[in-house]
Each structure stands twice: as structure tokens, then as C-alpha cells.
Specification:
Number of helices: 6
Shape: globular
Structural class: alpha+beta
Radius of gyration: 17 Å
Helix content: 25-40%
Mean pLDDT: 88
Order of helices and strands: HEEEHHEEEEEEHEEHHE
Strand content: 25-35%
Distance between the termini: 42 Å
Number of strands: 12
Length: 242
């Protein structure tokens, strides 16, 4: 279990970057303490002057194969974002890389990924993001409105010519963007799922308390499941101060 925890920490970012005017919060909770490594991950990094990238995803399976795919995704995206900010094209390239690896281990190397690029431009903050089969974000606005962004897009590493779903939003002062893996949305109480509605409700309540939404969602999912997890969980939150 100790070796598993050490390896899992190595697959997550050692620290979150400082983004001027933006709080970055994250939470990660593995399904078990056993040697089976989970496939959920998140990452945030600087990718140029006044530009930061973020990613969250869920790799198929557990164990060493999932860990290897997680490492491949994180490091490939970090390298690609140093030369381009086209989130759609970047996910297309990642899809090709995963498909090439999957030739040796079919049906074991696919993943959902949401990739975002945050750009500061003359006081404005723009977030461009694209999804390869991953749920869209919950956006809590400073005026109290909440938007659950529905995204489609193909799972990566499986189909040729995968299709990505791309959006652009302005991040105004006080706005908050919440990203989760299906460890949150598919948490169960009997036959009922926590869902994106549960994520949005907890994020909104945390916002009203000026609290860390990532921690609040982790605790809420754990409680909803009766004190246990049904899957690995990753949460990533951007909150523009203001």
C-alpha cells in the first residue's frame, strides 16, 4: 500500500502553479489503499507567458497499465502545450499517441480527457477547453447563476479520427470552474447517482460559504456513498478572485 501511494503521488502534479488572481484547488481520493492504482488524474502547469494549461481525465483500468497511460497522457500534453494552444488539435495528437500504444495492448489504453488553456489578455481571462469523452465543467458565476456545460467528444485511443467538443468561456472576477471525474458523478446511494447535479449543488453551496469547492465535493461524495468510495475521484477547481 505504501508503494502504491508513493507511485500514485508521482502520477499527480507535485504542486499546483501560482496563477495571478486565480485560486487553484484540487482533490484526489483513490478507491482503495491496495496496490491497484487508479486511473483518475489531474494536472495544471504553465505553458507560456500569461498562459496555463489544465487537464483532468480517467484512464481505463487500474494497476501498472493505467499508471503508464496516465504518465503518457500527462507528459505528452505538457510537451505539446509548449508549442501550441489549440486544445482541439492537441487532443487529436494525444489521441494518435494513445492509439499507437494501444496497438500492443488493445482495449487497455483508452481514456477520457478534458484539456483547457487559460489565457490572460489585458485583464481578461479566457478559458478554451476541449473534451475527449470527458464530462464538461460546472461554472459558478459571480452573479449566482450556475451552468453545467454538456460536452460530447470521442474517448481517446479507440476510434480513428476522434471528434473533440470545444468551447471558450470568459472567466470573470468571482467566477469558478469545477471539473470532476466520474468518481463524483457515479457515486451511488442505493440506485441513485450523485450526478453533475450533485456536483453543481455542492459547488454552489461551497461558493456561498467562500469555501474550497474541491474539498467540499470530495467530502460530499464520500458521505453520499455511505462513507466509502465507489471509484477513484479527482476534482480540479479554478476560482478567479474578485
Amino acid at each position: 500500500a505504501d508503494a502504491s501511494r508513493r507511485l500514485q503521488r508521482g502520477l499527480l502534479p507535485p504542486r499546483l502553479p501560482e496563477i495571478p488572481g486565480v485560486d487553484v484547488w484540487a482533490a484526489y481520493h483513490p478507491l482503495t489503499e491496495a496496490m491497484d492504482l487508479g486511473g483518475d488524474f489531474y494536472d495544471v502547469w504553465s505553458c507560456g507567458p500569461q498562459r496555463w494549461a489544465l487537464a483532468i481525465g480517467d484512464v481505463c483500468g487500474t494497476g501498472p497499465e493505467a499508471a503508464a497511460t496516465t504518465a503518457l497522457i500527462r507528459h505528452t500534453l505538457r510537451a505539446l502545450t509548449m508549442t501550441s494552444n489549440d486544445v482541439d488539435a492537441l487532443l487529436q495528437t494525444l489521441d494518435v499517441a494513445l492509439a499507437d500504444v494501444a496497438l500492443d495492448t488493445p482495449n487497455e489504453r483508452f481514456s477520457t480527457v478534458l484539456l483547457g488553456i487559460l489565457t490572460a489578455d489585458s485583464g481578461a481571462l479566457w478559458l478554451d477547453f476541449a473534451s475527449g469523452g470527458h464530462p464538461g465543467p460546472v461554472i459558478v458565476r459571480a452573479d449566482g447563476t450556475v451552468d453545467v456545460v454538456e460536452l460530447t467528444g470521442s474517448v481517446l485511443g479507440v476510434l480513428p479520427n476522434a471528434v473533440m467538443d470545444r468551447r471558450r468561456i470568459a472567466l470573470e472576477p468571482g467566477d469558478e470552474v469545477v471539473l470532476v471525474t466520474d468518481g463524483a458523478t457515479e457515486a451511488r446511494k442505493g440506485q441513485a447517482f450523485f450526478g453533475m447535479e450533485g456536483v453543481a449543488a455542492v459547488a454552489t453551496a461551497a461558493y456561498a460559504r467562500n469555501a474550497n469547492a474541491a474539498d467540499a465535493i470530495e467530502h460530499a461524495v464520500f458521505d453520499y456513498g455511505g462513507g466509502r468510495m465507489h471509484d477513484d475521484l479527482a476534482v480540479l477547481v479554478l476560482h478567479r478572485r474578485g
